[in-house]
């Protein structure tokens, strides 16, 4: 069939079950900025945990250092958060951690390094940007830090993904 301009229009087919699963998995990879291999590793660990696989998977992804740096508000994107971590601008419990995939534990305090606080971009991101008001993260503007108060529950994580499809994708 063709439209008014004379170009052909491709009819959209109903997406297959596999296609839906793949799309949801790709969304996770894009959202957290991770690769296939990492996601597979997280999935395998989650499937061995006592909790629901999807809940364990998202809890782990949400506790990644680069994600928490983004959630607390030091960065305005996951990419910038990742860069801040690798360039040693971020401290976890007062220690320098430069591994974006570092998994934080409940009670960990994530802060901006003293000499990085003068960086205008980091400062304005943290002080002016309304970051996510999440029940599992507390933010301290005076000390330029945020604390992972407790592990997040799936329903608190603000991403729209059908976790069941992801689990089905990996359990094929």
Task: Report the total helices.
Answer: 7
Q: What's the rounded overall pLDDT mean?
A: 92
Biggest sheet strand line-up: 2-1-3-5-4
Q: Can you tell me the overall shape?
A: globular
Low-confidence regions: none
Which structural class is indicated by helix and strand composition? alpha+beta
What profile does the largest beta sheet have? 5 strands, antiparallel
How would you describe this structure to a colleague?
The protein is an alpha+beta fold and about 170 residues long. The protein has 7 helices and 5 strands; from the N terminus they run H-H-H-H-H-E-E-E-H-E-E-H. It has a 5-stranded antiparallel beta sheet, covered by helices on one side. The two termini are about 35 Å apart. The mean pLDDT is about 90.
Lay out the secondary structure:
Layout: H1 17-32, H2 36-48, H3 53-62, H4 65-72, H5 78-86, E1 90-92, E2 95-96, E3 109-112, H6 120-128, E4 137-140, E5 145-148, H7 163-170
Antiparallel strand pairs: 1-2, 1-3, 3-5, 4-5
Helix pairs in contact: 1-7, 2-3, 4-5
In short:
The protein has 7 helices and 5 strands.
Keywords summarizing the entry:
172 residues; alpha+beta; five-stranded antiparallel β-sheet; 7 helices
């Amino acid at each position: 069939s063709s439209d008014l301009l004379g170009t052909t229009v491709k009819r959209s087919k109903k997406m297959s079950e596999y296609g839906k699963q793949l799309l949801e998995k790709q969304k996770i990879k894009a959202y957290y900025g991770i690769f296939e291999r990492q996601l597979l590793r997280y999935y395998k660990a989650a499937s061995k945990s006592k909790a629901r696989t999807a809940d364990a998977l998202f809890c782990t992804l949400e506790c990644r250092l680069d994600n928490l740096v983004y959630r607390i508000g030091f960065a305005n994107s996951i990419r910038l958060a990742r860069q801040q971590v690798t360039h040693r601008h971020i401290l976890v419990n007062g220690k320098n951690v430069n591994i974006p995939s570092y998994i934080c534990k409940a009670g960990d305090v994530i802060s901006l390094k003293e000499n990085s606080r003068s960086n205008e971009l980091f400062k304005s991101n943290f002080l002016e940007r309304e970051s996510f008001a999440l029940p599992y993260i507390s933010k301290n503007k005076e000390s330029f830090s945020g604390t992972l108060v407790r592990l997040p529950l799936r329903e608190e994580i603000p991403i729209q993904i059908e976790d069941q499809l992801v689990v089905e994708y990996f359990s094929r």
